[in-house]
Design brief:
Blueprint (H helix, E strand, L loop, with lengths): L8 E5 L2 E6 L4 E5 L2 H18 L13
Protein name: Type II toxin-antitoxin system HicB family antitoxin
Organism: Pseudanabaena frigida
InterPro entries: TTHA1013/TTHA0281-like
């Protein structure tokens, strides 16, 4: 299975941290940076499972 590296843009808005993945378009938030990043990873994984594109895949392919 191929690995891909995606960008995570983080910023603080009021009392929440926002995490965005511009390559995929996913966004999540958390009260702590770690929560925002963890949520973004999960959101991105789920999105790519549902809508694989550009050869990105999170599932193992059997031969």
């Amino acid at each position: 299975m191929k690995s891909h590296i995606f960008t995570a843009i983080l910023y603080k808005e009021d009392y929440m941290y926002i995490a965005e993945c511009p390559e995929v378009g996913t966004v999540d938030q958390g009260e702590k940076i770690e929560q925002a990043i963890a949520g973004l990873k999960e959101a991105t994984r789920l999105y790519l499972e549902e809508f694989p594109r550009l050869g990105y895949s999170t599932k193992h392919e059997s031969k």
